[in-house]
Amino acid sequence: MKKYTYTEKKDTRSGFGAGILELGRTNPNVVALTADLAGSLKLDAFIKEFPDRYIQCGIAEANMIGVSAGLTIGGKIPFATTFANFATGRVYDQIRQSVAYSGKNVKICASHAGLTLGEDGATHQILEDLGMMKMLPNMTVINPCDFNQTKAATIAIAEHVGPVYLRFGRPVVPIFTPADQKFEIGKAIVLNEGPDVSIFATGHLVWEAIQAGEMLAAEGIEADIINIHTIKPLDEEAILASVKKTGCAVSAEEHMLNGGLGDSVAQTLARNYPAPLEFIGVHDTFGESGTPTQLMQKYGLTADKIVEAARKAISRKG
């Protein structure tokens, strides 16, 4: 098992803040919008340096999406920011009609996603957003794993022409990917190679998958561990190449099982190479208040649960 270490932890939303600040300095068409959450989205540095390229829309998310769509007509690249629950569930109609259907070059950048929002509770812990957004035609869906990858993804989506949903979070997590990485939309990253089981992880669960790989290696089980940072377009080639080697798989995500990464992996395998697949994710329920660690443990989004799922997947191989 390849060894991954870290010397620092940061929240992925700060990676977004660093990325959009760099974009502001290199791309004069980048505009930041927010719905009364500039501080939470780490926009303060961008606003200070580029006050004329910042729009405070207030608590009016639907209007923010409409304004963003309009800005693209003039050649601007709007980054519309708010919490993930408000960025998707509250304004789905506007995103569908004004952004996805029209193919507008809007970047919807959503923080505080998933259970790790923590104490704010179920009303804010959206667990359906990846599914909602990936079902929209023309929409690219990205869920990076740490500060560095979030910064790189933020920079990359400005070059991509078309609607993008970029998801990140509030809790501090290990920084283990390179600071100088080149983010390739739709290209999965192989973190470890092994012949026994494939582990496909996204977002905060990538680090848990790495830890699970170390635990499995101690048992003599070597796993393919693959970072699926882009949910759509999905790197089906990487998924199939891995499962054809290992014969079984586990998906791991901080999202509802319905509509998430595991759903996409299952469809890929069903169409091309049926194989045992186990799922780590939230099972058809809302979240609740608690610390991020408590909630990840209660809902089974941890390294030890990935290990259990890997063992089960291996046992199902023919």
N- and C-termini, Cα separation: 25 Å
Q: List the strand order in the largest sheet.
A: 3-2-4-5-7-6-12
Mean pLDDT: 97
Total number of β-strand segments? 14
Question: What is the 3D form?
Answer: globular
Structural class label: alpha/beta
Number of domains: 2
The rounded Rg comes to 19 Å
Number of discrete helical segments: 12
CATH topology annotation of the largest domain: Rossmann fold
Note the beta-strand portion. 15-25%
Helix-strand string: EHEHEHEHHEHEHEEEEHEEHEHEHH
Query: How would you name the oligomeric state of the polypeptide chains in this document?
Result: single chain
Poorly predicted regions are none
Q: Briefly, what CATH class of the largest domain?
A: Alpha Beta
CATH architecture of the largest domain: 3-Layer(aba) Sandwich
* Helix percent band: 25-40%
Report the major sheet.
Answer: 7 strands, mixed
By CATH, the superfamily of the largest domain comes out as Thiamin diphosphate (ThDP)-binding fold, Pyr/PP domains
Molecular structure report:
- With 318 residues, the protein is an alpha/beta fold.
- It folds into 2 domains: 9-174, Rossmann fold (3-Layer(aba) Sandwich), CATH 3.40.50.970; 189-315, Rossmann fold, CATH 3.40.50.920.
- The protein contains 12 helices and 14 strands.
- It has helices spanning 12-26, 44-49, 61-73, 84-89, 92-100, 129-134, 147-159, 205-218, 236-246, 261-272, 292-298, 303-315; strands at 9-11, 30-34, 54-56, 77-83, 107-111, 140-142, 164-167, 172-174, 189-192, 197-201, 223-227, 230-232, 249-256, 277-282.
- The strands form 3 sheets. A 7-stranded mixed beta sheet has the order 3-2-4-5-7-6-12, sandwiched between helices. Strands 9-11-10-13-14 form a 5-stranded mixed beta sheet, sandwiched between helices. A two-stranded antiparallel sheet has the order 1-8.
- The chain is globular and about 60 Å long.
- 55% of the residues are buried.
